[in-house]
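Model it.
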Amino acid sequence: MSRIGRMPITVPAGVTINVENNLVTVKGPKGTLSQQVNPDIKIEQKDGQLVLSRPSDDKEHRAMHGLYRALVHNMVVGVTEGFSKTLEMVGTGYHAEAKDSGKKLDIAIGFSHPVILDAPENVSFETPNQTTIVVKGINKQVVGGLAADIRAIRPPEPYLGKGIKYQGERILRKEGKAGKK
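Modeled.
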């Protein structure tokens, strides 16, 4: 049995979960999320917990069991606490600014024009300082994907380390040209 799939999901107070026709809808203080679940995976609510079960030990069912348990758990965490990704900008003259109360992000990253990004629904941007970008939201997949898109604007390069990187990301640096001996 899947180690992830067999773990029950604790439903905190203030969160309501509705399961009908294999569509799981989670409502909480931060918003509402929904996820379509494969019809083979059964979802039961009992004693303030959600338990997912699979019909057989086929490879496909084992994989789906852990996947859908993780997706539903991420929805519960998202509507209660939310998710965030922090990015850092390294380079002379690189800076970012959140506008429209976090719905737009204006990035100056060395191009001839500023890069302006709009936040999807339930996602916001924060800039605690000019070189730090925080992406916050309730959907883990959207927050991670948007952070990856921001990083892809100018990924860190290996010689000087300039670009946009995740907070705590270690950039493997290369040695420059060796001088004549």
